[in-house]
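Shapes recur. One chain:

:::
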Amino acid sequence: MRSNGTPNFPDPQQFVGGNVKLTIHQLAPSQAALNACSHLLPTNGGSDSEETAQQQRTRLADGLSFARCMRSHGVSRFPDPTAQGQLTVEMVQAQGIDVRSPHVLRVVQACLPASHGALTPAKVREALNRAGS
């Protein structure tokens, strides 16, 4: 950006965990600089966006596989994930399923491999703990 017409462009700040913050709201970078550097942005509509879409499709496929497994093991009202691949304890409970029943917990354990690693025992415990009683 600096070499393309915006000499005062700030350096990004890196935080714990690798997150990066770049604050430019009071800076008016030149259009030429934006055009020249847009391919460097992580969400520029190029391959990174496609990767995110692929990750979303994978999450959805893994969630659907898990849901099918749950239904095939006797939890007949187990819901499919949303179109974005989200599947929450609240969604399951809304179907009248007792997520803490021994039968459901056994089926969850049996079906975890169907999620291809998207769900783990730790993630299930965390979701149940967040859901409260």
Remarks:
- Helices lie at 31-37, 47-72, 89-93, 102-111, 121-131.
- Residues 47-72 form the longest helix (26 residues).
